[in-house]
Write a structure and sequence with these properties.
The chain has 275 residues and is α/β, with parallel strands linked by helices. 43% of the residues lie in helices and 25% in strands. It is built from 11 helices and 11 strands.
């Protein structure tokens, strides 16, 4: 496992690819302990029996007391879903909305979750649906006190499959060049990193799965964190906007983007260079 540990801020939505279960357990203990210290309700959802889940958190300070008072919840993936289930993205989001509101009503400051969703993304159809869910729940977490680590087993899924999900998280340790995720405001999508010929198909797939919806006939793309974008990826954005009968307001930090849009004669684009 590589890269910096997930932050313990109010909004943390992290995709964590792992190939060492022990390292994953250490990471999730740290993440969940920060939630307990902040007065949050915490949860672990993983493909393990209830007894195994309890043992995996044996180094969590105050584990037993947290279980007794309901501050810690342990859920087995196998108990919650069928092995071949394709999750419904909206139903999944509503479940976490309800869980967050329930935590707040019980006096907690929010909800913090570690979910090993490996069994739910084995097939292309499962990943299509789960990728949509990842984008939608990220939008919810932008505005409400929920944070999460979404863990995926690299040994079982492989890097290409994990990349399909990792690129839809604000933070990840997976090897992806770009991240597409929600913003606080409706009709705004955020891009970071680099969009080049090597990943334009992944970007097109991510855009289709996330399916960010315009507001007032305009899709605002905050690309100020984008270091590079080529013409293929601009065309993917244009095509997405066309499908929704919208225009694109592209906020960029580099004037070269505006020149490229002009050269391509992309009438659906307006570019705002933000210094």
């Amino acid at each position: 496992m590589t890269n910096a540990s997930p932050p313990s801020t109010a909004h943390a939505h992290v995709c964590l690819a792992y190939d060492d279960p022990a390292a994953l357990d250490a990471r999730m203990v740290s993440f969940l302990a920060a939630g307990l210290a902040a007065g949050e309700r915490i949860a672990l959802i993983a493909p393990s029996t209830p007894d195994e889940l309890t043992r995996r958190l044996d180094r969590l300070p105050g584990r037993d007391a947290a279980l007794r008072r309901g501050a810690l919840r342990l859920l087995s993936v196998e108990q919650m879903y069928r092995a071949d289930e394709v999750v419904d993205p909206l139903t999944q989001v509503r479940a976490y909305q309800a869980a967050t509101e329930d935590a707040l009503a019980a006096g907690y400051t929010g909800l913090r979750v570690v979910a090993d969703a490996t069994p739910l993304v084995r097939t292309p159809a499962q990943r299509d649906a789960f990728a949509r869910y990842e984008y939608l729940i990220d939008g919810y977490m932008r505005d409400r006190p929920m944070s999460a680590i979404c863990a995926y087993d690299r040994r079982e899924l492989g890097d290409p499959a994990i990349a399909e999900l990792a690129c839809l998280h604000p933070q990840t340790n997976a090897d992806v060049l770009f991240r597409l995720h929600a913003a606080t405001d409706p009709g705004v999508v955020t891009l970071h990193g680099e969009l080049d010929p090597s990943n334009h198909r992944l970007f097109a797939a991510a855009l289709g799965r996330a399916d960010p919806r315009p507001a007032g006939g305009r899709l605002v793309v905050d690309a100020t964190g984008l270091r590079f974008v080529d013409h293929r990826n601009l065309l993917h954005l244009r095509n997405h906007a066309r499908r929704h009968g919208a225009t694109v307001m592209l906020r960029a930090s580099r004037s070269a983007v505006a020149r490229l849009v002009e050269l391509l004669d992309l009438a659906e684009f307006q570019v705002e260079v933000v210094r």
